[in-house]
Amino acid sequence: MSGLFVELLPDYVALREADPREYPSDLSPLTPEEAALVERAVDKRRREYTAGRVLAREAAACLGVDGLVLVNDERRAPMWPEGLVGSITHTRTWCAAAVARRADVRSVGLDVEQDAPLRPKLWDTVCTRRDLAWLQAQPEAARGWLAKALFSAKEAAYKAQYLLTAQLLGFHAMSVRIDAEAGSWRATFERPSGGEFAVGDVLEGRMRRANGLIATALVIR
Ligand SMILES: CC(C)(COP(=O)(O)OP(=O)(O)OC[C@H]1O[C@@H](n2cnc3c(N)ncnc32)[C@H](O)[C@@H]1OP(=O)(O)O)[C@@H](O)C(=O)NCCC(=O)NCCS
Predict the structure, then answer these.
(1) By C-alpha distance, which of 57, 59, 58, 48 is closest to 24?
(2) Residue 208: CB within 6 Å of ligand 1?
(3) 3-class state of residue 15 by DSSP
(4) How far is the CA of 182 from the centre of ligand 1 (A)?
(5) Region for residue 8 given its phi and psi (left: phi exceeds 0; alpha: psi -120 to 50; beta: otherwise)
(6) Which of 41, 79, 94, 143: CA 20 to 30 A from 103?
(7) How far apart are CA 98 and CA 107, in angstroms?
(8) Which CATH superfamily is domain 111-220 in?
(9) What pLDDT sits at residue 2?
(10) Mean of the pLDDT values across residues 98-113?
(11) Does ligand 1 have an atom closer than 6 angstroms to the CB of 40?
(12) What is the DSSP letter of 117?
């Protein structure tokens, strides 16, 4: 696959994508401080973490920033250096990293999920009452994958807001509407976040369904 997220982001956001299985599990592409965070992890986690770091470094280099070193905070969020913002996502078969200049965008969020229906027993955990009412109004055959897309949009929106607020949010903090035909979605805050977002504020993102994957992305300007 050449690119999953490429149509979802404006061209001032640098994007790199790859299959994490192509990356070594020996941590050799990482700096010592990056490697320290996954030294005890299993091979799969080492590969996906390595892929994310290498791709983020390559994306930063596209913006003229060489030698990006990216470690995560205690909640696992990457600590982007002064002047840059970005996002990383991975699933078993795909990984993407997006990086932008803080002067161009305030935040970025990416998420990728396997395109399998969200299990109905998870719906109440992931969905607000508004989400559930919207899902019930969709054609029955589409509800499972739309619920998965909604989950993915919440993960992407969560990552993007975290860069601005450092707030942990539960899944009921936002309601999401997917417009599958337009390849877009809107997340509306049901709870405030960090003095930055009020109830009713909206984040708008893009989505794509291809190669057995669902990708969601947003940029906050
Ligand atoms: C953190 C979380 C969003 C990660 O999502 P995921 O689907 O499990 O995994 P992904 O591969 O898509 O993303 C993982 C990457 O996200 C990044 N990340 C992790 N926490 C983050 C945060 N708080 N903010 C921004 N980016 C974060 C990291 O780069 C991580 O990869 P790495 O550990 O290799 O560096 C998810 O595990 C989580 O905690 N979700 C609950 C919170 C939530 O989504 N609330 C919804 C609000 S409406």
Answers:
(1) 48
(2) no
(3) strand
(4) 25
(5) alpha
(6) 94
(7) 10
(8) 4'-phosphopantetheinyl transferase domain (3.90.470.20)
(9) 76
(10) 98
(11) no
(12) P
- pLDDT band per the 50, 70, 90 thresholds, residue 110: very high
Torsion of CA 36, 13, 87, 196, to 10 degrees: 130
The pLDDT assigned to 55 comes to 98
Average pLDDT, the chain: 97
- Give distance in angstroms: CA of 11 to centre of ligand 1: 24
pTM of this structure: 0.98
Helix (H) or strand (E) holding 135: helix 129-136
> How far apart, in whole angstroms, are the C-alpha atoms of residue 138 and residue 153?
17
Residue 179's nearest CA partner among 150, 220, 136 is 150
| Domain ranges within the chain, ordered by starting residue | 6-104, 111-220
**For the structural domain made of 6-104, what CATH number should be given?**
3.90.470.20
